[in-house]
Amino acid sequence: MDFTQIGEVLEGEPKYRLAQAKRGIFVDLVEDWEQVTAFPKALRARLAVDFPLPIEAQTFGDTKMTAVKALIRLSDGKRIETVLMRHTDGRNTVCVSSQVGCPMACAFCATGKMSLLRSLSASEIVLQVLFFARLLKPEGERVSGVVFMGMGEPFANYDNALAAVRMLNDHDGLNIGARHISISTCGILEGIRRFTSEALQVNLAISLHAPDDKTRRELMPVARTHTVLELLAVVDEYIAQTKRKVMFEYLMIGGKNDADEQAHALAKLMQGKLCMVNLIAYNSTGVFVPATRERMVFFKTVLEQAGVPVTVRFRHGREVKGACGQLLTKEDAYVLPSDVTDAASV
Ligand code: SAH
Fold first, then answer.
1. What confidence tens digit (pLDDT) does each residue in 235-244 have?
2. How many whole angstroms from 325 Cα to the centroid of ligand 1?
């Protein structure tokens, strides 16, 4: 499905058909053109061939669970993962992939091991949200937010990621408010600068993961292209221009970035900034060990004492191997464990 082609497919039809078609896809969430009864029969039959609506996907988990993962098959046969997170407060957030695989090769991330197969088009990003919007519809629920925290680096696919944001945001479409969309980057400075100039209400999240260059460079190859201070200077500029709060993600890895002095260094960097820190439990990808809960609580306390807003994300989606950093396109890797454990809220 390439949403930018709907207009072309409808060429020769009355102009208002385009709005009707978009309404059918994004508002009524039809999965079959036959359901668009405003269209003449012949047009419905033609669209079924020229613009088919089915999305081919395998889902893991069901909508009763806190996380549902879908493995979506793209038109070229490649597969991407996307995760629906159901929060206890009723929000439904979709975590979308922006690329098939990822070029950034972060040491702790399963997707990074795949390397980059290709970037996704804007439509392929939106498709992931549409899939879950359809899944939620029978419950009378909708997708309330989108985070670009699935496979891939959104700022390594900048134009398509931003085009997807605009499509998601479309008032006549899925109508997801910009404030409910977040883009997470591993720290591509040029992307952050461009994003600053967009003047959008979309949230920015930065994968920091270490307060010092040495550790950050060991964890994230992208950190070799800049220092933590250079990254933070670019983020400060973003904050100054947009007045928007930035989220810093900090993965907690045992013996790597969870030492006392790292907690204090992090607090010092964050102090006084319009930001919040999200401490994230490392989901094992077989490389490192997770930091203990005690270490996470210590970091939280140090940050709080420094006046830095902080949240702790213990786990989400682990039971469907849809947790952060576990997104890896290999179907046979998804055997659902029977002991669905304590998936907690973000
Ligand atoms: N490339 C972007 C978007 C991917 S989401 C970025 O780097 O920000 C990346 C987030 O996934 C990281 O910030 C981290 O919060 C999470 N993540 C990656 N690997 C993880 C792992 N093994 N365990 C838990 N979270 C992980």
1. 999 999 999 9
2. 5
